[in-house]
Amino acid sequence: MDSTLSAILGAQFIFGILIAVVIGFLIGKDAEARGMSGLGWGAFSFFICIIAVPIYLVVRKPRLDERK
């Protein structure tokens, strides 16, 4: 494999991991604010991002400070 192609694929992999980390962190933080398991949702979102994000958006609870 050419070294340029290898560098491009490596950069894409790292960029993809960084995006997954950011999404997992944000969903974990939002889940905690809603009284849900932040660690669980964050890890689920990190590992299976394309499936977990839509599921989270459907099943998430209202924020704790919005409840009356």
Topology:
Layout: H1 3-33, H2 38-47, H3 49-59
Helix pairs in contact: 1-2, 2-3
Quick overview of this protein structure:
With 68 residues, the protein is mostly helical.
Would you give an account of this structure?
With 68 residues, the protein is mostly helical. It is 76% helix and 0% strand. It is built from three helices and no strands. Helix 1 packs antiparallel against helix 2 and helix 2 packs antiparallel against helix 3.
Element order: H for helix, E for strand: HHH
Structural class of the helices, strands and pairings?
mainly alpha
- Give the oligomeric state: single chain
The biggest beta sheet reads:
none
- What coarse outline follows from CA principal-axis ratios? elongated
Report helical residue fraction.
over 70%
Instruction: Point out poorly predicted stretches.
Output: none
Distance between the termini: 61 Å
* C-alpha-based Rg, rounded: 16 Å
Number of helix segments? 3
Beta-strand proportion: under 5%
